[in-house]
Amino acid sequence: MIKKNTTLGEFIIENQSSFQYSSGELSKLINAIRLAAKVVNHEVNKAGLIDIIGNAGDINIQGEDQQKLDVLANDKFIQTLKNREIVCGIASEEEDDFISINSSDNKNQNKYIVLIDPLDGSSNIDVNVSVGTIFSIYRRVTPLGTTVTLEDFLQPGREQIAAGYIVYGTSTMLVYTTGDGVNGFTLNPALGTFYLSHPNMEFPESGMIYSINEGNYVHFPQGVKDYIKYCQKEEGDRPYTSRYIGSLVSDFHRNMIKGGIYLYPKSSVAAEGKLRLLYECNPMAFIAEQAKGKASDGFRAILDIKPTELHQRIPFFCGSRKMVEKAEEFMQGK
Ligand code: AHG
Ligand code: MN
Ligand code: MN
Ligand code: MN
C-alpha cells in the first residue's frame, strides 16, 4: 500500500525489495539522480538572477545552440553519477560520445548505465517557462568490470530497468517508474525533500488535448495533416484543445494528468523528426506504457525499436492510448 506524503527517500527503500536483482545498486542510483535533480532545480530557480541564461556559445552534437543551462545541467548530472561511482557508463544528449566510468580501483563492478537529456525544453529557459530533465537506466550487456561499449547503449527501450523525468515547473516534480507503475513526487523547496504527491499515475484512456508544433504543418506527412484536421473537426467530443509548450517533459506531464496526445512527426525538412530515441522517446515511452498510455512512431511501438545510433531521431506519437491508436490509423492510411 502506497502512503501519500511518503518521502522519495523512504519510497526508494520500501520498494527496493521488489527489484528483480535487488542489491541496493539501483536504489543508490535513483538516490543520486534525486540529489542531482535538487542541485539543478536550485540553479534553474536562480535563472535571471545570475548569469546562467542564454547561449553557452557552442553547438552540440545535435546541431543545436547549447544553452548555459544545458551545459550546467549536463555537468551536474554527470559529476554526481561519476563521484558516487554507481554507474559504469553515461550517454547524454549534450555529449558527442558515451562516457565510460572507471572506479578508483579501476575495477568498476557496477551493472547500470544511464542515458540523460539533462535539460529538456532549452528554448523555454530565457522566458521562464517550464523545463525538465529525462533519464533512462539499463543493465549493461557487456561483462562486469570491462569498459562499456556502444552495444550497452543501443538496447531497445523494452530493456529499460527504470526511467523518469523531473519537471521544473510551478512546483518541481520527479516522476519515475521501475516497471511497476508510475509515481510522482513533489519537491518541498523549504525542506529540500520530495514527497509522494501523485501515486499510481495513469493516462486517461482518451482525452481532449493534442500537442504538436503546428507551425510545421506544410512539412508534415499527409497522415499527420489529416489527423490534425480530425482533431479540429466539430463532431462527437471534438474539436480538441491545442496545447504546446515546446518542452516534451511539460507537454507529456500535462497530457498524462489531463488526457491527451503529443506528436512530433517526421517532416519534409526533418526526415526522422527531431526527438532523440535514446534520451527522449524511449524513457517517455516506458513511462507512458507503465501509465497505461501508448508510444509509437506511427507504425510500431517505440520500445520495440532496436537503436542503431547513439543520437538517433525518431517520429514520436505518445499519450492516451485511444488517441495514439487513432493517430496511427491516420498514419497507416486506414
Ligand atoms: P531539448 O531542449 O532537450 O533539445 O529538447 C527540445 C525538444 C522537446 O523538448 C520539445 O518538445 C521539442 O524539442 C520542441 O521542438 P520544436 O521547437 O521544433 O517544436
Ligand atoms: Mn537540445
Ligand atoms: Mn529534450
Ligand atoms: Mn536537452
From TrEMBL:
Binding site for Mg(2+) 2: 117, 120, 280
Keywords from the UniProt entry: Carbohydrate metabolism, Cytoplasm, Hydrolase, Magnesium, Metal-binding
Binding site for substrate: 120-123, 213, 244, 262-264, 274
Signal peptide per UniProt: none
Domain Fructose-1-6-bisphosphatase class 1 C-terminal: 204-332
Protein's cellular compartments: Cytoplasm
Cross-referenced InterPro entries: FBPase_C_dom, FBPase_class-1, FBPase_N, FBPtase, Fructose_bisphosphatase_AS
Family indicated by similarity: Belongs to the FBPase class 1 family.
Record's protein name: Fructose-1,6-bisphosphatase class 1
Gene label: fbp
